């Protein structure tokens, strides 16, 4: 080999150094700069692993040794068995207001027909698809999982659909912190003509959710039943129990759940 390591071996050496600093759960993710793989590239492999090589790209950075040099800008991982693994350049998740927001990106040269999002309880790999229809293809996509429960852990995978095949991303793990009974701020607020009110129950409970005017008179009962653990959303159309639209102004909505009583303010602008 004339004193030089093949590029796929050099890439794996670089991978070992990079993987040591990746956050837990992301050790097999791949980050490839958009456009990096679209000009005069090639694939090298040893029968078990695949590593990309490229030419004609601007220098992003060089990691050099005594007898070899590897262009930086890639995160490689041993065990790559498909070029699609690198086409899904990132898949991440974060928790915001008890909602898991999943985001992903694919390389500029990929041509997927759409995406599916799969979730499993953290304690057992039993993945189920969350989305109904196929998520439209784009170079950067996202999905909001509003059914994840605080105090629970989940595993997520992204499925990339191409022709008659579906390729899976690496698995990421998300843990939601526990939360007590919670009444969220309505959205939108101020509103006209409708608004959404969400609340969270850590356990099954008898619930009563109602809207009151500034004098304390009940305007509308939105929920009065026993609800299971989880996040619930109800909608108010700005009408009272008789079906008559109420006037502009400040109103209050109160949640009674078990021994908990929570109140927040909302505003109608006609």
Number of strands: 19
Looking at the structure, the CATH topology of the largest domain is Immunoglobulin-like
Low-confidence stretches: 1-81
CA gyration radius, whole angstroms:
26 Å
Folded structure, characterized:
This protein is mostly beta strands and 270 residues long. The chain folds into 3 domains: 1-81, no CATH class; 88-178, Immunoglobulin-like (Sandwich); 182-268, Sandwich (Immunoglobulin-like). The protein has helices spanning 7-19, 84-87; strands spanning 42-45, 50-53, 62-64, 69-71, 88-96, 99-106, 114-121, 128-129, 140-145, 153-162, 165-168, 172-175, 182-183, 195-201, 205-212, 218-227, 230-236, 249-257, 260-268. Strands 7, 8, 10, 11 and 12 form a 5-stranded antiparallel sheet that branches. The protein has a 4-stranded antiparallel sheet with strand order 16-15-18-19, with no helix packed on it. The longest helix is centred in the first third of the chain and has 13 residues, at 7-19. It is elongated, with a radius of gyration of 26 Å. The N and C termini lie far apart (78 Å).
Question: Topology of this protein?
Answer:
Elements: H1 7-19, E1 42-45, E2 50-53, E3 62-64, E4 69-71, H2 84-87, E5 88-96, E6 99-106, E7 114-121, E8 128-129, E9 140-145, E10 153-162, E11 165-168, E12 172-175, E13 182-183, E14 195-201, E15 205-212, E16 218-227, E17 230-236, E18 249-257, E19 260-268
Antiparallel strand pairs: 1-2, 3-4, 5-6, 6-9, 7-8, 7-10, 10-11, 10-12, 13-14, 14-17, 15-16, 15-18, 18-19
Keywords:
3 domains; Immunoglobulin-like; single chain; five-stranded antiparallel beta sheet; mainly beta; 270 residues; 19 strands; four-stranded antiparallel beta sheet; disordered N terminus
């Amino acid at each position: 080999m004339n004193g030089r390591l093949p590029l796929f071996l050099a890439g794996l050496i670089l991978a070992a150094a990079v993987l040591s600093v990746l956050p837990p759960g992301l050790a097999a993710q791949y980050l490839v700069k958009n456009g990096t793989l679209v000009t005069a590239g090639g694939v090298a492999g040893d029968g078990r692993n695949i590593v990309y090589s490229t030419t004609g790209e601007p220098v992003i950075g060089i990691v050099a040794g005594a007898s070899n040099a590897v262009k930086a800008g890639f995160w490689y991982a041993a065990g790559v068995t498909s070029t699609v693994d690198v086409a899904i350049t990132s898949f991440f998740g974060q928790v915001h207001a008890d909602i898991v927001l999943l985001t992903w990106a694919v390389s500029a040269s990929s041509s997927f027909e759409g995406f599916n999002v799969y979730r499993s309880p953290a304690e057992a790999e039993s993945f189920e698809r969350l989305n109904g229809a196929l998520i439209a293809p784009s170079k950067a996509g996202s999905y909001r999982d509003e059914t994840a429960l605080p105090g629970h852990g989940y595993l997520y995978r992204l499925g990339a659909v191409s022709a008659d095949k579906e390729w899976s991303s690496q698995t990421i793990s998300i843990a939601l912190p526990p939360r007590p009974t919670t009444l969220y701020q309505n959205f939108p607020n101020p509103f006209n003509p409708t608004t959404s009110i969400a609340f969270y129950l850590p356990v099954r409970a008898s619930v009563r959710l109602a809207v009151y005017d500034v004098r304390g008179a009940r305007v509308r009962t939105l929920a009065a039943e026993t609800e299971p653990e989880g996040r619930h959303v109800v909608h108010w159309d700005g009408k009272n129990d008789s079906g008559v639209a109420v006037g502009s102004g400040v109103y209050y909505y109160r949640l009674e759940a078990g021994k908990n009583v929570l109140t927040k303010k909302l505003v109608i602008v006609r």
